[in-house]
Amino acid sequence: MENLKSFTAHFAQLNEKDFIDLEALFQLVSIKKMDHILTSGNYAKELFFLNKGTFRIYHLKEGEEFTTKFLCSPCIYAELFSIRKQTPTFFNIQSLTDCECYKANFDAVEQLMETNPNIRRLFLKLYEHIYISGKKREISFILDSQTKRYHDFIAENPQIMEQIPLQYIASFIGAKPETLSRIRRKSNKI
C-alpha cells in the first residue's frame, strides 16, 4: 500500500503506527472494466482508496446518464451523503479500466479518527480538498462555457483522456456528444 502512504502524505504526516492502524482497515478489491463498486438505490457504508485505474460517478435521470465526477488513482472517495443520511445513494460508481482499489468500513475509519489525532487531521484535510474541488466544479457550471470546461478538463487530466469515452466527457462538461465534437473540431483548428 505504498500508494496510500504517498497519497496521505500530501494531506498529513502519519507516523508508522498511524499508517499501520489505517492500513489495517482496508481490504483489496479488484474491479473489472465497466463493473460497479456502488449502484444507486444501495446504501453506502465504505470508503474506497483507488490504487490503480479510473472510475466515473454518474446518475440516471429518465434513462439518461449524467457523469458528475471522474476518480483517478490515487484517490480516496466515500459517498458521504448516503453514509451520513443513511439513505440509498443516488449515484453509481463504475470502473472505466481494470482497477485495483481498497475498501474500508466507514464506521471503522471514524472510530480510528476518534482516537488518533493524526488520522483525524488527515481526513479533515481530505474533506477540505473534496469540498474545494466540488465548489470549483459548481462555480465552473455557473461561470464557464462548455468549451472552457472541456479545455480545463484536458489540462487537469491529460493522463486519462484515452481511457474515457467521449460521451462521458461530454456529459461531465454538460454538453451533448455532438456539441463536444464541434468543440473538439474548433480546438484542433486553433
Secondary structure: elements and pairs:
Elements: H1 2-9, H2 16-23, E1 27-31, E2 36-38, E3 46-52, E4 54-61, E5 64-72, E6 75-78, H3 80-85, E7 92-95, E8 99-105, H4 106-115, H5 117-143, H6 146-156, H7 166-173, H8 177-189
Antiparallel strand pairs: 1-8, 2-7, 3-6, 3-8, 4-5, 4-7
Structural notes for this entry:
It is globular and about 55 Å long. It has helices at 2-9, 16-23, 80-85, 106-115, 117-143, 146-156, 166-173, 177-189; strands at residues 27-31, 36-38, 46-52, 54-61, 64-72, 75-78, 92-95, 99-105. The strands form 2 sheets. The protein has a 4-stranded antiparallel β-sheet with strand order 1-8-3-6. Strands 2-7-4-5 form a 4-stranded antiparallel β-sheet. The termini are far apart. The protein is built from 8 helices and 8 strands. Strand 4 and strand 5 (64-72) form a beta hairpin. This is Crp/Fnr family transcriptional regulator. Residues 10-130 form the Cyclic nucleotide-binding domain.
